[in-house]
Design a protein that fits this description.
By secondary structure, this protein is an alpha+beta fold. Helices cover 58% and strands 7% of the residues.
Length: 231
């Protein structure tokens, strides 16, 4: 099963597609990147992910795999002899990053998105509060997982580095809106980690330009506001 053709259906602005690109880059795998227009979804996307019709989708030898965290684990398992291992071999040691990866998506990222999309100032303020609280837990997770080394994976990039690292562009975008989820006071370890991770060549090669992401975010927020006003 290892080897063969890899295609990634995604969008430049999607942090979840970015997650898969990071895994592929760190594993040293070649793939065809297919940029989707989510306003006019391709037949390939719809047939590959008929349930959610969302990106990312990794197509390996014609077989589609959906959902970013599942895709990253698939890449690590199927290409276990290629590049670094992203998850430890020990079942317990694998369970820890899986737990925190789910927490990042379900708690940190969910509230973080609300800081942009909240309908009232009160909703946005509450989202900021929840995001900062979640960041404190992820800060503690970094201390536990890294054991004083540079990355969640220790000396090398691991599953959690890729999970959180897919959000580095969102960090920059948030900062342009005046909100910094990780800073040197509340979360010094994560603040330093963001700079360290962002400086890696494999990351710089694929992280989109911040200005373009800000323009995209403004467009999506305007669309959301227009939709609310038309309800």
């Amino acid at each position: 099963m290892a080897g063969g053709e890899l295609k990634l259906l995604g969008t430049r602005a999607s942090p979840f597609a970015m997650r898969v690109k990071l895994a592929l880059n760190f594993k040293g795998l070649s793939y065809e990147n297919i940029e989707e227009d989510l306003r006019n979804k391709s037949d390939l996307l719809i047939s590959s992910n008929p349930v959610h019709k969302k990106v990312p989708v990794l197509i390996h030898n014609g077989k589609p795999i959906c959902e970013s965290r599942i895709i990253v684990e698939y890449i690590d398992e199927v290409f276990d002899g290629t590049g670094p291992s992203l998850l430890p071999a020990d079942p317990y040691e694998r369970a820890i990053p899986r737990f925190w990866a789910a927490y990042i998506d379900n708690k940190l990222l969910a509230s973080w998105f609300q800081t942009f999309t909240g309908k009232t100032d009160e909703e946005k303020a509450e989202a900021v509060k929840q995001t900062l609280a979640a960041a404190e837990h992820v800060e503690a997770a970094f201390k536990e997982c890294s054991k004083g080394k540079p990355f969640f994976g220790g000396d090398n990039i691991g599953y959690l580095d890729i999970t959180l690292g897919s959000l580095v562009a969102l960090v920059r975008t948030s900062e342009t809106y005046g909100f910094k989820p990780f800073d040197a006071t509340r979360s010094p370890l994560l603040n330093a980690w963001v700079e360290r991770f962002s400086a890696l060549d494999a990351v710089k090669a694929i992280v989109p330009d911040t200005d373009r992401l800000v323009d995209y975010a403004k467009m999506r927020l305007a669309e959301a506001a227009a939709a609310v006003s038309n309800d």
